[in-house]
């Protein structure tokens, strides 16, 4: 039952990811405009570092 409680918390962040995935075009532009999605910017951060 405790697992269910944690599942609920994971559902919220997952929904946010869906929003970003639904817009693949803006995701690519995120490189120029990191304001598209904080999560996307974080993933691009390591890429830009290299």
Automatic annotation (TrEMBL):
Its taxonomic path starts at: Eukaryota, Viridiplantae, Streptophyta, Embryophyta, Tracheophyta
Q: Bias regions of kind Polar residues — which residues?
A: 1-10
Where does this protein come from, organism-wise?
Answer: Trifolium medium
Quote the protein name from its UniProt record: DNA mismatch repair protein MSH6-1
In what ranges is there compositional bias, type Basic and acidic residues? Answer: 25-34
Which portions of the sequence form the region Disordered? Answer: 1-50
Source domain of life: Eukaryota
